[in-house]
Amino acid sequence: MFLATATQEPAGLVTYLGTYGPLVLMFVVLYFLLIRPQQKRQKTRNMMLGNLKKGDKIVTIGGLHGTILEINDDNVIVRVNDVTKLTFERSAINSVKSTAE
Questions:
Q1: Which ranges does the record mark as transmembrane (predicted)?
Q2: Could you say which of 35, 42, 71, 82 has the lowest number of CB atoms within 10 Å?
Q3: On the CB side of 88, how many CA atoms lie within 13 Å of its CA?
Q4: Is the pTM here over 0.85, yes or no?
Q5: CA–CA separation, 68 vs 80, rounded Å?
Q6: What is the 3-state secondary structure (H, E, C) of the chain?
Q7: CB neighbours of 89 closer than 8 A, spacing ≥ 6?
Q8: Is residue 21 scored above 80 in pLDDT?
């Protein structure tokens, strides 16, 4: 005699969740551990590069310290000492040490 109960789940749904569930979980974990923090860092860097102005003391990616003399859309002219002026791409600036008053 065969008795069927109503508590049995469809086999297709269990297989689907068992197959794709870990993949979805991995993507969610990677998003919160890698992608989202990187987007936040990129946003703050773009804001820093957009707020540069004459007189800011900066450090380049190569470690060169200087003061911004001139700035345009793509390039920055940096004074390293009293007579040395160097031209850098705006994206070569790593950080701003102090801002012009």
A1: 13-35
A2: 82
A3: 23
A4: no
A5: 9
A6: CCCCCCCCCCHHHHHHHHHHHHHHHHHHHHHHHHHHHHHHHHHHHHHHHHCCCCCCEEEECCCCEEEEEEECCCEEEEECCCCCEEEEEHHHEEEEEECCC
A7: 74, 75, 76
A8: yes
